[in-house]
Amino acid sequence: MHTALPVMVRRWTPLAAALLVAMACDDNTGGPLGVQAEGVSPAYDKWTPGPNDTCTPEIHNSYSVVGPDRLLYPTWHPPVDPATDCTFGHEHGRDPSGSDLYSDVGDIPFGYALPADHVGYKIEWENDVEFRFDGEAASSLLSVSCDVMVELHQGAHGAGAFTINQHEIVIHTACSDGTAVHVTMISEIGTPGEFVSSCDRDRTIVAGPAPPNSSKGGGVRLIPDRACIEEFILVPDGENSSFSSGIRESWQISDRIKTVDGKSLVSFNPYFQVLFPARYYDPSAPNNLARTVDVCFEVDANGERSAGGACEETVGEGGITSMAFDDPRSAFSGANRFVDINSIRISNADGPEIWYTDKFGENAQTEPFEGSIAQFISRVNNDRATQPSGPAIGRDRDYGVQGTGVHAPN
Q1: Is-cis flag, bond preceding 57, omega within 30?
Q2: Within 110-266, where are the H helices?
């Protein structure tokens, strides 16, 4: 076990106290209100530097937060440690401290609902997001402004997502119409053991056996496969590859918090997009896992090859005949992402604001039970016939810019 360095003080907030989340401390034995880490979580101390990374595990572990269970969890950190200029080689999206929600929710404990591969936890947020109502007339007259922060475990480098559909999701919102949601849960995205081709959404690919204790959920995981590469990336001379069509992932969530008797208290359906993942599915490859960067150097039997875009950026002036998938020069790191917020529907006008659910957001009740997670849902009904919908956030951000050392796995 690596010794964790002191973590930064985070302000105690009423919401954090109510939800028992983001209880950070100024060292690992006590904090602003005597919050004490009683141990480490299964998600803690799981990162090991690779040959391209210069930070130590001890520096990485210093970015920690005490969770609801009084255990220490990893949390957001920059790709480059500002104190030492060392690089971690991965990123977790946008720094949550800039969000207007941060003073209420604090740091997000990665892996509280579901410990997983550390580098896959990604945060995106935006302040004052305008939600527009459906319909031209309503949209011209009505709007709702929201602060939004989301986290999803969405690694875009390994074979796991071909079959695994259980991923941690965190939703924080506060809106001008009284809508407020603070939810942490496991999202079961689509069907375990399979996914849908991102370039042909009528084609389901059975990639392997469903993982134990998993079941079908809402939404879908759209992931590129070999057919997408052959149709959109390998092109004849004189044409440019269509990377947006051939190499793009879209994890489309459809989740809800439900009471014991099945009533929906809140539902949400954000879509998490990855533009240049480090992997695609190829049944001829070991473990079905092929590396996107390899396509930049491929010439098929018809003489077709990649042209332009991310491959041109990666290969540069030429002279390179291959590149490792984890090379920081590769554009295929999974660091270009954005989130379609879509809608958040609440039906909780008569209910309490604090509900306790299992890890899948089900069996919501008013008293905590063993293994339960506290969820905050405001006392409103916004499930209207005309529903406001949020835009995409994060389109203009690249979390793997040159000089940050970000590379796959990420």
Answers
A1: no
A2: 136-141, 226-228, 243-246
Distances in whole angstroms, Cα of residue 91 to Cα of each of 19, 73, 102, 270, 400: 26, 16, 19, 21, 7
Is 201 in contact with 222 (CB distance < 8 Å)?
yes
85-134 pLDDT, tens digit per residue, is 999 999 999 999 999 999 888 899 999 999 999 999 999 999 999 987 76
Lowest mean pLDDT, pick from 11-25, 162-176, 243-257, 314-328: 11-25
From 159, 153, 87, select the one nearest 400 (Cα to Cα).
Answer: 87
- The stretch 234-249 carries a mean pLDDT of 96
Please report the pLDDT score of residue 143 as a whole number.
75
**C-beta separation of 340 from 152 below 8 A:** no
Torsion of CA 160, 165, 168, 170, to 10 degrees: 130
Closest CA relative to residue 406, chosen from 336, 339, 320:
336
C-alpha distances in Å from residue 105, one per residue of 56, 235, 264, 322: 28, 48, 24, 45
Alpha helix stretches (DSSP H) within 267-316 = 309-315
Phi, psi torsion values for 19, nearest 5 degrees: -90, -10
pTM: 0.91
Q: What is the mean pLDDT of the chain?
A: 89
3-class DSSP string for 308-369: CHHHHHHHCCCCCCCCCCCCCCCCCCCCCEEEEEECEEEECCCCCCEEEECCCCCCEECCCC
Buried b (16+ CB within 10 A) or exposed e, 10-40: bebbebbeebbbbbbbeebeebeeebebeeb
Name the 3-class secondary structure at 190.
coil
The DSSP symbol for 6 reads P
